[in-house]
Amino acid sequence: DETQGVELANASRYGLGAGIWTSDLSRAHRVAADIQAGLCWVNTHHRNDPSSPWGGMKESGIGRENGVEAFEAYTQSKSTIINIASTDEMRENDDWFAESSEVRRYG
């Protein structure tokens, strides 16, 4: 039974990979979407395309390997704003915090 199979697979606290064996392609996609695993194999097992992202869910793994997902998992965005103007230039031109009732646009 498909529902019972998905429930049994998802009952585990781990979710690294899952194998699905079926001749019904629609069922394969449906079950793969419902199973909480980082990688689902259909009619095969333990094969992986090195360019495809993969990693565990729940208590399996420590992030993602390969693909854009791995890059995003191991990096953070950070903005750095540097004012290279002299103090005098800054006083003359930097009016962002100047007291004024005038509406100003940033950017």
From TrEMBL:
Superkingdom assignment: Eukaryota
A molecular-function term among this protein's GO annotations: oxidoreductase activity, acting on the aldehyde or oxo group of donors, NAD or NADP as acceptor
Domain Aldehyde dehydrogenase: 1-79
SUPFAM superfamilies associated with the record: ALDH-like
InterPro entries documented for this protein: Ald_DH/histidinol_DH, Ald_DH_C, Ald_DH_N, Aldehyde_DH_dom
Database matches in Pfam families: Aldedh
PANTHER family, per the entry: ALDEHYDE DEHYDROGENASE-RELATED
Protein family per UniProt: Belongs to the aldehyde dehydrogenase family.
Protein name, as recorded: Aldehyde dehydrogenase domain-containing protein
Organism: Marasmius oreades (fairy-ring Marasmius)
Organism placement in taxonomy: Eukaryota, Fungi, Dikarya, Basidiomycota, Agaricomycotina
